[in-house]
Amino acid sequence: MKKLVASFALVVAPLKAAVPAYTPALEARVFDRAWTLVSKHYWDRAKTGDPWVDARDHFRPIALQAPDRPAFYTVLGEMLASLGDSHVYAIDPVQIAIGKARDAGRAAEGFGFTMLPDDDGRWLVTHVASGSSAAKAGVQIGWEVKAVNGKPIDIDYQPIQDEAATIDFSDENGADHPLRLIAAIEDPEPVRRAVRLAGNVLLVALDGFDSGDDKWLAHTLEDGPPPSAVILDLRDNDGGDADVIAKVAGLFFAQDRPLVRRIERKENVQKLHGTGSRAYSGPLAVLVGPISASGAEALAALVDESGRGITIGERTAGALTGASEYRLPDGGQLSVAEFDIRTPAGKRLEGVGLEPRIPIKPTLADRRAGRDPVLDRALLVVRSRRLASRR
Predict the structure, then answer these.
(1) Contact 124, 115 (CB under 8 A)
(2) Beta bridge partners of 179
(3) Secondary structure (DSSP) of 70-84
(4) Are residues 64 and 31 in contact, defined by beta-carbon separation less than 8 angstroms?
(5) What is the value of pTM for the model shown?
(6) How far apart, in whole angstroms, are the C-alpha atoms of residue 58 and residue 76?
(7) How far is CA 233 from the centre of its chain?
(8) pLDDT digits (tens, 9 = 90+) for 209-252
(9) Of 30, 116, 16, which Cα lies nearest the Cα of 73?
(10) Rounded to an integer, what distance in angstroms lies between the CA atom of residue 234 and that of residue 279?
């Protein structure tokens, strides 16, 4: 399973590698390669017969008339989205380079806020960094970002240090706030975080499942006295490597058990390998939300269905199919879902999401004040379960 949900933000890194120049001839090769790969590898054969030929005939001439690469990838994305599968998408070369810089943990220039699109396509502020240009200007979580320098949002936009930009915001009441912000160097937030809370509760956050995450988590669980409870925060986790997901899950189960059911031409079961007496067996809570996707949903569903722990938060993204990634001729990347996925109990989460056992949605006031009712509830739950286990 691959990552599929990007936390697009006006916080990007300088690109080290040159991106190939845009030409219609090159992008024609990209379009044809993407179409062929989906036709050959997509898991649902019912969608890659005549309907997929019709999609090619409709979108190809439009794509080849695109004036630039972002416009081309927009059209290519529309064709891929017609399959209705979260793991079928293309990423252009600029975003590939930005993602590599982010994953390498490089410092970046930004205006001090991050944003994500909502269900209506509006870009909403999700975080404002303390002391940043955005914070000093009064930018608020929940504001809509409408334009940058009078132009629509472009996720390839790369501010440089000390660059000034006019960003048009709109608050929840519809009032406009055009603000002049200055870009500055910002350190990226670690994608792995752990802290011991009161009562020796271990709070662990993983924003993905990448190489080494399982070893880091195993070390974190064993470092110091055994935690009285564990809260696994997957609210910013958009999935990752299937083997890593299985190893992370295995840290909380003593015995081998099914992790997911893979639906290809026949059904296969992917298992996690329990870690026996080394597995953490105390109270467990898993925090999820709208960004939790792919492998994060699979792990949360496993914990929920098995009764191993409790899931708390908001409904997940509903993005759970299994994909492979292919390089495109212009340096872009194509993700193709090659199998469908069900939970161990046979439930399909694609397009639906996982409703946590305890649903809690933070209010806008909570988010602006820095309150976290999801975490607060999780602490109450795991501490009460710890007390119950002692009786």
Answers:
(1) yes
(2) 167
(3) HHHHHHHHHHHHTT-
(4) yes
(5) 0.87
(6) 11
(7) 13
(8) 999 999 999 999 999 999 999 999 999 999 999 999 999 999 99
(9) 30
(10) 19
